[in-house]
Amino acid sequence: MAQADQNFFNEMLNGTDVRAAYENLDRWQANMPSDLRSLKQHEAEQLFRRVGITFAVYGEGGDPERLIPFDMFPRVFTADEWRKLERGIKQRAAALNAFLADVYDGREIIRAGKIPEHIVTRNEAFEKAMVGIRPPMNIWSHIVGIDLVRTGRDQFYVLEDNCRTPSGVSYMLQNREIMMRMFPQLFVENRIAPVDGYASALWRTLASVAPKKCEGEPNIVILTPGQFNSAYYEHSFLADLMGVELVEGQDLFVEGDFCWMKTTEGPQKVDVIYRRIDDAFLDPLCFRPDSMLGIPGLMNVYRSGGVTICSAPGAGVADDKAIYTFVPEMVRFYLGEAPILENVPTYQCAKTDDCKYVLENLEELVVKEVHGSGGYGMLVGPKADKAMIELFRDKIRARPQNYIAQPTLALSTVPTFVEEGIAPRHVDLRPYCLVGEKIELVPGGLTRVALNEGSLVVNSSQGGGVKDTWVLAE
Amino acid sequence: MLSRTASHLYWMARYIERAETTARLLQVGARNALLPDIGGGFRNDWEAILQASGSLEMFREKYGETKQRNLETFLFFDAENPASVRSCIELARENARVVRTGLTSQTWDAMNTAFQEMKELHRTERSKLSLTDLAEWTSRACAQARGSIHATQLRNDGYHFMNLGFTLERADNTARMLDVKYYVLLPSLSYVGSGLDQTQWVTLLRSMSAHRAFNWTYRGEITAARIAHFLILNRQFPRSLLTAVEDTLDHLDHLARGYKNPSRAQSAARSLLAELAEAEVEHIFDEGLHEFLTRFMGQNAGIANIVQETYLTGEPA
Prior knowledge:
The structure holds two protein chains of two kinds.
Chain A: E1 13-14, E2 17-18, H1 23-30, H2 34-51, E3 70-77, H3 79-103, H4 108-111, H5 117-121, E4 143-150, E5 156-162, H6 169-182, H7 184-189, H8 198-208, E6 220-223, H9 232-242, E7 245-247, E8 252-255, E9 258-263, E10 266-270, E11 272-275, H10 298-303, E12 308-310, H11 321-324, H12 327-335, E13 342-343, E14 347-348, H13 352-360, E15 365-369, E16 378-380, H14 386-398, E17 403-407, E18 413-418, E19 421-430, E20 432-435, E21 439-441, E22 446-450, E23 464-471
Parallel strand pairs in A: 3-23, 5-13, 6-7, 6-11, 11-12
Antiparallel strand pairs in A: 1-2, 4-5, 4-20, 8-9, 9-10, 14-17, 15-16, 15-17, 18-19, 19-22, 20-21, 22-23
Helix pairs in contact in A: 2-6, 3-12
Chain B: H1 3-33, H2 41-52, H3 56-63, H4 68-77, H5 85-98, H6 105-123, H7 131-152, H8 157-185, H9 195-207, H10 211-218, H11 224-233, H12 241-259, H13 264-278, H14 281-287, H15 289-312
Protein name (chain B): DUF403 domain-containing protein
Pfam families (chain B): Alpha-E
Protein name (chain A): Circularly permuted ATP-grasp type 2 domain-containing protein
């Protein structure tokens, strides 16, 4: 085994020593003949295709049923490492929810001068229609996906928060299924905390926020934009695991004080909607009069407590990149605790000083659009050519308020199967935190890996793959 | 269950059944083409087949001549032909994909594997694929889907909607195949009972996987009356009109019981079944087989329409 590159934290190697958590895996990969490896890799691909997990990237063309590459080398967290992460993630999810409850009601945090008002109220994701509404248990974001990167043994940074409808949890579950099916022995040799409690935890979470008019066990549905959505597989997978209906807008209608779904036995009342569609498409009467999509009148039913929408409309304001900077402040303000997870230092191009610094150091920085996602409108300074840098320089000068910049992080690496055995590749982590009556987190998450050598971009649209993520039991 | 879900399950099954029928038609055509000419011969046979699948005009526009290779392409691979095996498999799988939640993993697996293999076949050099291979592949893929549905799906309403798709489509398809043979293939009734005619009847039996079954059931001579009886009125033959309608009624009864709500579809199916149960082959021939079959297809479609209105649109009853 070669010595680790000193510039990046190698999660398996400490110098030339294999860390304890990875000892079994190191033996496992060393003893695996290369033909078995390619056989297993092929088998994994077949399994993914057969269960139908494919991924469509908007606007990229090509095969709409492309697979996200699966790397068989798992990523491992020790129980100690996870304990700290778990506390940090739950803390952050709680603070984000407290923030949402506040900005749509009393706005204490603004009055206390901790966050400038215009950043909140002029934000595109801020939903005026939600002001003064109090969702059940005052929970706004029920599934919080927090993107983390690691740069050192104890050093984790939050890259961004996802408070609307974070996707990818089906990969967390299926990666584990496939690993257990292909390498059962690994699960005998290592004590790996199971993740398959996610579906029932999600059900419990959604049931716990049933509207006040709901009597008895709530009727929960997942609302999908339909089969052409890139995450459709995930929507149907979750519906299946929870045993709830997967509905489209056309299956729902509003009559009287309730929302109903069209069934073979006539209309049936719906209590909780786990929506995987954007706010704009929920109710044309409320959000977009020009839209044919959505369920007319849904927001009236929501306001009068006839149905719960998860996440609440307007929850996106908490995960906007312009708000991100203030999340540690939210933790202190609402919870009175020190933030366990750190933010990446962020320069706001809207601020003159920051903007100057950014323009002078573009080669060293990662520049992101405030409202962008998916790594498209992004500049990775150290990887970009001159023309690209100049392009962004012009863009930032034209509309500085649209951009933030962060230092290029030295993302940790995890061994990954490549042509010649294994090699370190950069990874990130998205755990899925559930917020209902309780805050729950299954031990694991989605590890994305940049498969190209040296690449720091883990997005599946740009050469990223996924890995099974292990949390070792005590 | 969601009306839309029920509708997808129902159509998934219809397309599976239809894929198989198209493959069967291809087989009949190919076998008949091997026989000596009667009344227009080769060309006429194939046109009858295309007419039965409702795509004669489209074929003429696209390919002109009825060459066997064109026919294979059109009926098996052509994505523009809605009745081609490929279109049916794709549509079945698309319907299945939308209702993943209503399918067991085995059923989904069967549907998805069929779809992936079809893509593979499409990429394979045509000279390496015989018509028999294609037809057999289709039966196998459909059998796998049907088998996993039968063996693994919960016996809930979704199961009955899938089966309604199968039985309604099957009744229609058997009637169509019979109609090809009787109405179009034979230029005049004088051929009935001739040696050539008999060979063609056998081809039809074969294409419905019923050749041996027929021999076991009837022994001895193959006559038009016996074959008509077998395909229309025999309670043992799984693809006969009577069996298909009986199965349709059975699934409608299950639904009505489960929902504690009788449906108009039940009454329609019940009266069609009663008619078939009392029918005799001689009377059918008196009416005219083609006329009888046309009427039957209309009645069967009537039941399908009521199913659609009652269950699949989600409007309050």
